[in-house]
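debug: dumping io for the single-chain case to check the tokenizer round-trip. Nothing else runs in this session.
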Amino acid sequence: MTQEELDALMSGDIDDLRSLEDDDISEDSDFDLSFEDDVSAEDLLDEQELSVADDEVPVKSSKKEGVLFPMPATKENKMVHQLDDVTKESEEKASEIFDIIEGVSNNLMDKEEMLGNIIEVLNGNIELFTKLNSKFPDVEAFAKQLEQNNSALDNANQALEVLQSSGEAIMDVMDIMQYQDIHRQKIERVINVMRALSNYMNTLFEGRIDDEKRVSSATHIAGDTHNELASNEDIEALLASFTK
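debug: decoded output
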């Protein structure tokens, strides 16, 4: 339904509407504007959209899997808001990870110190049993203790190497985690650029009159090459007025 037909209906000129319908029907016998009881407003819109020329395709919100694009500017969809959440949560989680790594590193250092003391004791025992075994080679206990202490010293040295390599790995992890802070700074720089552009655009399009005080824009202006289609709300309101 065109704007001209709506104007005829709203003004109450039913005869004019019928004459318009007759003209349209004479031009295109396949187009029917009669309102039937079983025809809804959506059906009318669908029929009208099919008759629109290729260069006059009505603008509709594109849909993909039931989601409107572009998405509405809600709290969950605001880009800068989401980036702020990313940087904040990333910094908090990185701080927690650093605390855990620092605790593990401190524990490894404590165990290295304890293991160093144990190695020192084992070295003393080995020195003692070596002398005793050399002076009393017939005493089997001295030889057995010397062997056990040597074995324990080897195990302690291996454990110390593992602790030291683990400490070095912890330091490498902390160095790698420094890149997280660099990534956060990059995101913050993007946020600052986006905000600067947003403020610039707002200032560029700023007006001296509040939007609430502006006169509503005209739907049709003299000289327009075509008439816009009526919306679902317009047609439903028009149909409802006929039933009163």
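debug: round-trip ok. Strands lie at 62-64, 67-69.
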